[in-house]
Amino acid sequence: MDRSPPPRTKPPRTKPPSTKRIDVEALRGVAVALVIAEHALGTPAGGWLGVDVFFVLSGFVITRSLLAEHVRTGRIDLVGFAVRRIRRLLPAALVVVVVTVSVAAALWFRPRFVSVLGDALAALVGTMNWHLVRQDADYFTETAASPLRHFWSLAVEEQFYAVWPVLLLAVLAVCGRRRARLVPVVVAALTAVGTVVAVGAGPVTDSAYFQTWARAWELLLGATVATLPTVATRSTVTAHPTPRALPTAVTVGLGSVGAGGVIIGVLLAPVSPFPTVPVVVGTALVLVAGDLQLRLTAVRWMVRPVVALGRVSYSAYLWHWPLLVFAAVVAPGAMGTAAAVTVTLVLATLSTRYVEEPLRTRRPVGHRPRHRQRLRRLRRLPLVVPAIVVTLSVTTMTVGDPASAARLLERPPTNAPERLPFADARALRTAVAVDGHPDATALAAGATRASLPPAMRDGGCLVGVGEPLRTCGTTTGADVLVVGDSTTVAWSPTVVGALPTGTAIGVTGVASCSAVIPTRAVRHRWSDACLTAKRALHRAVTAADPRLVVISAVTGEYREHLGDLPAGRAAALWERSMAETIRAFRRDHRRVLVLSAPQYGPDTSTCPDRIHGFGPCAASVTPDARAKRTSEAAAVRSSGPGAAYVDMAAWSCSSDGSSCPAVIDDTLVRVDQVHTTRAFADRLVPVLRRAVDWDALLRR
Q1: How many Cβ atoms are within 10 Å of 520's Cβ, its own excluded?
Q2: Cα separations in angstroms, 311 against 26, 231, 352, 451
Q3: 585 vs 71, which has greater pLDDT?
Q4: Given the DSSP bridges, would you call strands 591-595 and 548-551 parallel, antiparallel or unpaired?
Q5: Phi, psi angle pair for 646, to nearest 5°
Q6: For residues 129 and 210, is the Cβ–Cβ distance under 8 A?
Q7: DSSP calls for 38-60
Q8: How large is the C-alpha radius of gyration of the chain?
Q9: Residue 664, SS3?
Q10: What is the DSSP letter of 331?
């Protein structure tokens, strides 16, 4: 009789039920479609709100995963969480960064390539959002944005991932199992605090768009939804074996209201001061409703394309922006944009299949017995990682940007051969009309701060709003005083060179704040700080008591403060402001010389490329610039013989204003968007000397 034990048989392997939520994947698809459509087509105008949908989803998915682990094991493995996040996010991001930097090196000249390399460092260390804040970047107005700019949203999420698991673990420890039902209340309270902080910060415009605390409430709202019993599964902290099912009518109603909120927020974004609110709340309501309705066969087939896009949404988001930026250089226009979107979908599919999924689904090495001892040594890592992330963020905000390490590769501009000044206005006009082919490689190296006039550089005559004035040259008893904003100070080499020999001159200026004091009717449109700086400039003129005051004002000041008014009304108000300013300066028989501001154009540090050279850097005279110059000339005419006006902007544009090249006679005109280079300012000296009756203006 055979008494041997029966052979052991392995229990049949059963596939666990899928925990993937169709609504999550569908929302991801909608979010990335909105972002790509807005970036590629400019419509819908609120497509950028797709990022806010991503934030809510990230808070929901991450919190749901952490709570599932806590119910299953009684703890949260912070080391394992960090490893999973790195394996989920880093591989695809690293591939995109490497490819982007490589293409940038081949496409752009050194200044912009170095800038992209700096952006890459900020992207990889998770501080891209603070890098942009430090640069005072504006998401809605940048004309030559970095191809890695979109990493700002990943940086916000990474900072959230570094802090939230530790905070959630503390909440779970305080509440305990007996008070587990308080967890949603505590998380909701944290969301309320984050909302108050975001509302206090005001609308997410300018550089505030990228700030973490302006976005934390969106991630926390998703986390709050993840703790609600109505959306919980066995992974819930409340220990309910199944979710408390809501009535079908309620789920349909919540889902419909949520979807409507997202649509309304996107459509009303151009006119709503807080368009994120309906989008974020709408996304949360869709998550509360769940995906039971979407699992119906008929509905599932309808949303299948959106769900498919949602499954590759991470890679699609990573690839779309650099491809659109590169397409705008290589093949500008509709065909280039269409190609970029097509390649985005192809690369997103390949990246998801061969980069994301293999590393995400591979069994972690920490599960192998021989690695358990090594893993135990990393238990302090959860305390170190948040500290590192917070330190990098604070350092980026206050001390130094990690991306600034790339600036060490900057080279001083090459010494271009000196060119003779333009003999007269006719010679200058001839040079402007010539479509030359300069050596773009050498000129691109000159589009750096070192090409600015000395008065514009650090320690020169230009200060920021709120800083004490600093005067270069003669501080007391000056014959001529140049006062104004940065564009005025940039004209100083031309003015100094054009003045008669022996004339004592002083230069002082405030960045982004000219000496033109707006007329009382619109004075409230300027900030108190700028108005204070303007009054300080006027006091400096009174103290120096020069014979001649030279002023100018950048077109941006006119556009920013009066641009929303009807064109005729804006021009009339600027003319009145300029006339009142001239009268104020003319006291004690002083004379006033008004110089027009240069024409705005693409930033010469970023616009040239190896395909088109400086062709993309050309500008044209805009209607607001033309109206501003006309009103300034009228104000000078109404002020009598003690004032003079010189249209300096006309010297860098064609006679009809259709072309304002960035390079004239192999000389770089602008350092950036508007400030003239020292080389071009020097070449204008004879032209300004002939355009002004200096003897009459210096007579008192």
Answers
A1: 10
A2: 9, 21, 8, 48
A3: 585
A4: parallel
A5: -125, 125
A6: yes
A7: HHHH--STTGGGHHHHHHHHHHH
A8: 31
A9: strand
A10: S
Prediction pTM value:
0.81
d(C-alpha 523, C-alpha 698), whole Å:
32
d(CA 470, CA 461): 5
Is the Cβ–Cβ distance between 194 and 216 less than 8 Å?
yes
pLDDT tens-digit map of 143-179: 778 999 999 999 999 999 999 999 999 998 888 777 7
Closest by CA to 451, choosing from 206, 177, 678, 160, is 678
Tokens of 605: 């540090």
Six-digit token string for 356: 């994301």
pLDDT of residue 578: 97
pLDDT score of 508 more than 60:
yes
Upstream peptide bond of 44 is cis (omega within 30 degrees of 0):
yes
CA distance 221 to 223: 5
Buried b (16+ CB within 10 A) or exposed e, 638-674: ebeebbbbbebbbbbbbeebebbbbbbbbbbbbbbbb
Smallest CA-to-CA distance from 605 within 680, 675, 672, 679 is with: 672
Distance, in Å, from the CA atom of 203 to the CA atom of 560, rounded to the nearest integer, reads 17
Q: Which two tokens stand for residue 192?
A: 């309320």
**Cα–Cα distance, 421 to 502 (Å, whole number):** 21
252 CB-near residues (< 8 Å, 6+ apart): 289, 293
Q: How far is CA 453 from the centre of its chain?
A: 27
Please tell me the distance from the alpha carbon of residue 394 to that of residue 400, in angstroms, as a whole number: 9
| Residue with the two structure tokens 């088109």 | 612
Token readout for 116 is 């992209």
Report the distance separating Cα 396 and Cα 128, nearest Å. Answer: 9
Q: What is the pLDDT at residue 587? A: 87
Query: Residue 52 in contact with residue 218, Cβ under 8 Å?
Result: yes
Listed in sequence order, the residues at least 6 apart from 638 whose beta carbon sits closer than 8 Å to its beta carbon are: 579
Which residue in 143, 104, 102, 115 sits closest to 448, CA to CA? 115
Q: For residue 506, give the H/E element and its range.
A: strand 505-510
Query: Cα(138)–Cα(146) distance, rounded to whole angstroms?
Result: 12
DSSP assigned state of 644: E
pLDDT at position 236 is 40
Structure tokens, 355: 């980069």
pLDDT tens-digit map of 51-87: 999 999 999 999 999 998 988 888 888 888 988 898 8
Alpha helix (H) residue ranges in 352-434: 357-361, 369-376, 381-394, 425-433
Residue 375 is encoded by which pair of tokens?
Answer: 């893993």
57: number of Cβ within 10 Å: 27
CA 673 to chain centre: 16
Count of helices and strands (H, E) across the chain: 27, 9
Contact 646, 692 (CB under 8 A): yes
Q: By the 8 A CB rule, do 432 and 664 touch?
A: yes
Task: For strands 480-484 and 505-510, give the pairing.
Answer: parallel
pLDDT in tens, 271-317: 877 889 999 999 999 998 876 666 655 567 778 899 999 999 999 99
What CA–CA distance (Å, rounded) separates 497 from 550? 14
